[in-house]
Sequence to fold (673 residues):
Amino acid sequence: MTVALLVSALAIWGAGAALDVVLGPRAPAARVVPYAAGLVGGALVLALGIGAVTGRSRVLDLGSSLGVGESSLRLDPLAGLFLTLVGGLACAISACLVSWCRPPGRITSRGSGAGYLMLLASVVVVLLANDAFSFLFGWEGLTGSFYVVSAVARRDGSEVRASWITLGLGKISGAALLIGFLILAGVAHSFELGAWSAVPGVPLAAAWWLLVAGFGAKVGLLPFQVWLPLGYPAAQGPIRAAMAGLAANVGFYGLWRFLGVLGRPPLALVVAVLVVGGITALVGIVFAATQSRLPRVVAYSSIENAGVILVGYGVALAGAATGRQDMVAVGLLAASLQVLAHAVAKSALFAGSAFFEAGEGTDELDELSGVGYRYRWSSACFSLGSLTLAGLPPTLGFVSEWYILESLMQEYRLHDLALRLAMATAGALVALTAGVAALCFIRLIGLTVLRRPADPARPDPGEAVLGRAGLAVLGSACLGLAAVAPLVVAYLAQGLRPLVPARVIDAARVSPWVLQPVYAGFAKFSPSWMYVTMPIVFAAVAAMALVASRGRLLRVRRVPAWRSASGGVAGPDRYSSFGYANILRHVLGNILGARREVVVVGSSDTERIHEPSVEVRTRVVEPVESFLYRPVRATFLWAARQARRLQSGRLDAYIAYMLVAVIVVIAVVAAHA
Fold:
């Protein structure tokens, strides 16, 4: 049954990709079929994942059928846990894509559907790989699919550049994994992942650093995060949701898998993961809060979520480095919940925004004002995803961030001072990140979704029945998974069995509906009970306010409009998303590298008095790109120009170079003879 589900899913995806390449988007049916294939294959993968979590581990021996030695696939609870997430999201995202791609003009070139299905298949191969070749084969396939979906449209030169940067960073991550795998395989004399657990000393430490860098580059760890705000917006429509909410999870899966394979990590790596993860989270959300284009806001938010997840993973690493299984459990549980919240919410944001971006023909925040009145389903899904990423109750984001902070508070249980300081630093950074995240996503909801539009006309939102079903699944998952959080924890405990016994993680459930951070006697809460108490509290407060105001609370009061920010102001004086984030540009100007300039753009005729019109322009500098990648690029181009001069030299000079080289080699050999 397992083999049949896997082969059927891959065959359906392969057939859909072939149809997309052959027919392209000319006919409406040809546009829809690849994404319908993604929906059917996703359902099969979902069934496969649930069976793996609840069943026994299995190894599928492929023999030498791939032509590179012995290969095999491993289906165990950890792979099943991520397959469940991938399959469920593939169903919802594919349903959204079926509706989104129907109108002509949205898919303009062949390859988008094939790239999307290639992405799904590559993710499944990575999750099931049991040897180095299979793992790297799926990893490179995923890198190639990222390039395809970000380059297939190529609407302008910036998207061409974005696709190449996406490919380049993907190749860097693959190179880091390849070198790490070769070190492990060379010492263990085996390409099977399970054989690497006995690698000792220096090779193990080197492999740990390389693997964390390789997987971190895929999820957006500093300083490899520069491709996310470029690559995600270059993809079309809900395919962005597949990149951010679905495919990025293979990076976290790799970190989880090799924690179980390699065992104890070096202490310096643990400190680096905790601190760099916290910095990544803060940098990501600060830049997200100051962007004016919606896809870049969501992309930078992915960097923030990656940092928060890696902080939780750092807690698990601290437990592994000190031999504390309980610390491994609390860190992995917190990080896994955050992976789930990020995957669902990010998919909801990208899938929901795809409909109203396509309908409005823009992705600028100020031009999307009032989309909640015109695109009801997609805006509701978008809003629930935003609340989840803001970490507000009663969403799953609140539950996961509560677990992250609770896990960081366990630092007093460790005796190593460096680990305790690193966890304390990461805790402070995550707390600050949570505050800025609320500011960022409240801006999206308040000024994009809830604001009344200047034009009350309601165009056709293009949300067909299947698309609405996908949006409903993603949006309701943000709330529903929080309501049944104890059941989610129980499922995670089963899926994380290869890394830590299920009974240790299951200790997080004090009772059927009350949770704690694994340790008894610590803070407890019931996310399920919030759905009962919060409406009661809100109703009680509203009733008290109504009684205290003697009914005046419901009276309509009319006052002169304030000329800067009130809801009654329209036109250029209206409060904008740029203005909302401007205070953050000033307060965190050192982190953002903000640059301001006052420019005279003309003259205005106000009450017959000619006055110069002044415009204040603020520019935010991306420090990693400006101070790391641009100098490296300039140095590389300078070296290339110097090397190019050798192509047009004289023949006698080349012969002289060769003679000098031969003399040097002979001298060196003679000296060591």
Observations:
- The CA atoms of residues 215 and 252 lie 7 Å apart.
- The chain has 24 helices and six strands.
